């Protein structure tokens, strides 16, 4: 999953851009595959984290009840995760943020369970640089979509899932079901670039042509971004993201 740095013509090793590093935070790595556990533990230790290991979901829960971890990195493919009861989870005040490692075809099942500002995911096969970057974001604390009185919110954008209604400030947004699903997906993943394929599979359950997604995003922008600051952005060649761009705070 990682490679040696490239060499320059004179034989010296050229430097890659600096990876996100930790500052001694205690991370619980939960992985049943020995090779994956070794890769993660070695990489994260070199990046400046303190690492503990668990091989099953049950073992991870037991460790989380006994110790305060700053972050959990968890392989979502562990076979015993689905059978773990909610009553055995650590007290809410002690729950660390979680970074899931998940196969792409598991996202539809996993995304509805992701908490806002306390959980995130990286698809497998993953790049170490992305894992480290997502860890750093989670360790900063909640800064993305938040819950306010049972509704999802980002700044003055609020989504009420119980009523399937959205508003920007005091203005109600008249959204179609597809527009609402797209806006919700962007909000839950605020500050994360989503590809057209990720968006298409979440909104419609399958991938549709780029033009269909571009038209959907365009319609949504006209409804959401009438006020400043602009919230929906394009990362050309990569996809779309929701949030306040640097310099617009």
UniProtKB/TrEMBL annotation:
DNA-binding residue intervals: 149-244
CDD domains per the UniProt record, alphabetical: trans_reg_C
Pfam families reported for this sequence: Response_reg (PF00072), Trans_reg_C (PF00486)
Response regulatory domain ranges (all copies): 26-139
InterPro entries: CheY-like_superfamily, OmpR/PhoB-type_DNA-bd, Sig_transdc_resp-reg_receiver, WalR-like, WH-like_DNA-bd_sf
Sequence positions bearing 4-aspartylphosphate: 75
SUPFAM superfamilies in UniProt: CheY-like
Positions of the OmpR/PhoB-type domain: 149-244
Keywords recorded for this protein, A-Z: DNA-binding, Phosphoprotein, Transcription, Transcription regulation, Two-component regulatory system
Name recorded for this polypeptide: Response regulator transcription factor
